Amino acid sequence: MPKVCWKWIVPAALLLASGAALARAQYEHLPELSQIEPLPETQAPETQSYAAYPEQGYFDYDSWMTGSAGPTAIKPDWDWQLLPDGVIYQTYLANTKESRMGTQIVNVEGDGALWDSTLGGHIGLVRYGTCDGFWPQGFQFGMEGSAQVRLDPDEQLDVRSVDFRVGAPFTYGYGRHRVKLGYYHLCSHLGDEFLINNPGYPRLNFVRDTVLFGYSFYATDNLRLYAEGGWAFYNNVSEPWEFQCGFDWAPARPTGIRGAPFFAMNAHSREELDFSGNFTAQAGWAWRGDRTSHLFRMGVHYFNGYSTQYSFFRNVEKQIGAGVWYDY
Asked: Strand 316-327 to strand 101-108: parallel, antiparallel, or no bridges (unpaired)?
């Protein structure tokens, strides 16, 4: 039988008994639950300021990429879309040969009142990019087309001339940058009434089949700078090269019913005019849609240079007037 070491068992038993007695005495002196004062309320973690949290040890690139909106934002969620909302490369506001819906009444020095209108539009067909209708990014293929007609109010609104344009732009947008590579066909025709009233006027078969390259840069959300060059691989009367540049200052986000001011300038030069051309300026008030990026404008119009109607491409015109325009 093993030998018991009593010199350790007896002190250990006495120590356990004294501990139990001390615990019972402390428990008997605890206050009732009703007498316990509640702890002061602390701010919920979700409402605490950012300063209460320890500083992150990394840079959250995904949050930074998706945390803003506008033409300068970079959106990584790209996908295929058929007939997407919005266009990646928007029309130049002060260029009178762009496809849009618009009309202006102008007074031409030495010719009287004229009524110039553009009936057309610009849409996207397919896009690989973001679903943002206001500032889409990615690759997009689209179509544009318009009839650009001039009426003569002093001759019972006779059709003086009309230019037809149809094109297929391929565009790319990322961050502040927009690039366009495209094609357009343009042909110009005199009106029947004009030819009847001016039987000796030479009829010109003005035609351009043009490959173009354009680049625009958003210095701010509202300010865009751009430049574009075009080369006609088939031309009649016209010559191959044309260049244009300018800027648009217009509201980039929904304006509501109040609207916002806009201002735009465009300079356009063509080889058949020895690289002279025309200058256009427009200013007024604009409204950007709440659900689409479409822009409706109304304001004053100024033009100085060779005619916007290419059947009269060698006629110099100075136009002052007012108009309304709807850009897609």
From this structure: antiparallel
